[in-house]
Amino acid sequence: MPVPTCRRNTGGSSHRATGLDAHVRTGRTLLALLAVALAGAAPLSALPLVAIDPGHGGTDSGAVGVLPPGAVTGLEPRFNAQLQPVLFEKDVNLDVANRLNAWLMARQFPTLMTRTTDNAGGDMPYTTEGADLKARTDLANGRPAEIFVSIHQNSSSSGAGGTETYVKVAAPEPAQVLAAGIQRMLVACLALPDRGVRERSFYVVRNTTMPAVLVEGGFVSSPVDVALLAQPDFRQKMAEAIGGAVYQYAGLGDPGPICAGAVQAVPPPVPTAIRLARAGSALTKRAGINPQRGDLWIATVRDAAGTPMPSIPVRARLPNGKGVAATSRPDGKVLLAVPRRKGRLVVAVAMPGIAVSARAEVSARRR
Ligand SMILES: [Zn+2]
């Protein structure tokens, strides 16, 4: 059940002028107070330890969304069984977490990441969900952290999109205040539909001992959301929104300009086409492939201008169902040995940070 986003002021702005009775305070006292206040502004020891929990990892991809063609993600290229470029929730979560960690550290917050690599909690290989989640909450409870933010992305078969933030059922007020601030800031920065602060006792919010929230930034299942989640700038905005809310929750006031996103980088050339051609027997021998057992095909990777692109990782799905990986040569060509049987040869390309759906399908010829 959706819970409307809490709009009440959470920053304690009701500063009553209790100390401003002119006859009580001399100018000298005020100056002294000011000096104390300045000296004590955001002392390091006073900033809360923030546990940042990038959801999923390792063999647990989290939700998977299909990317629009030509999406430049800045993340590890991923493909589904049909060799469509896809977005893994775990990759988005870790990227947002890294950006949030950097944002908070730049403001002197002590932080704790429950994973920093593509692994389960504690940077351990994934075994079971139970072990993964327990490692995360053990890390946060052990220090202990004073704020816990779990970062996830949503998925739904109903076509839903938008942002929601969770606390455990009957969460104490500090968690509610933190969640309300994060949700408000996320909606302001990301401009996705506001699905509100919700209660659900996810493991990590139920088993942590400090105010804990779980953010569902957007839906990888939504074509609108996934196209945004694919963008590094959008993920930077998500991180800054969460960071800004944590900053306010810590009582530091205005976090300054946030959710500006990163500076738009000039996109690298993107492979946009693959041409598949059957190679002659001479090429077959040169490639060291037994022409009795299979056909040799050549896939040529080209950019939008038609120029062959070297060093592009290519994945092919062969008619026998097997997948092969190779990298294009300096002339943009990739040699592929194809079993001699009827079927379809599908090729997709990937390069660091880019996953494109350029591919070709051909029928393997019988001889
Ligand atoms: Zn998740």
Main beta-sheet strand count, sense and barrel state: 6 strands, mixed
The geometry reads as: elongated
For this structure, what is the CATH class of the largest domain?
Answer: Alpha Beta
- Give the second-level CATH assignment, the architecture of the largest domain: 3-Layer(aba) Sandwich
Question: What's the arrangement of secondary structure elements?
Answer:
Elements: H1 27-39, E1 50-54, E2 64-66, E3 78-79, E4 85-88, H2 89-105, E5 111-113, H3 129-142, E6 147-154, E7 163-167, H4 173-190, E8 194-199, H5 203-206, E9 212-219, H6 223-229, H7 232-249, E10 271-278, H8 281-286, E11 294-303, E12 313-317, E13 323-327, E14 333-339, E15 344-351, E16 354-356, E17 361-363
Parallel strand pairs: 1-5, 1-6, 6-9, 7-8
Antiparallel strand pairs: 2-4, 3-4, 7-9, 10-11, 11-14, 12-13, 12-15, 15-16, 15-17
Helix pairs in contact: 2-7, 4-7
This protein binds zinc ion.
Zinc ion (ZN) binds at residues 55-56, 62, 89, 152.
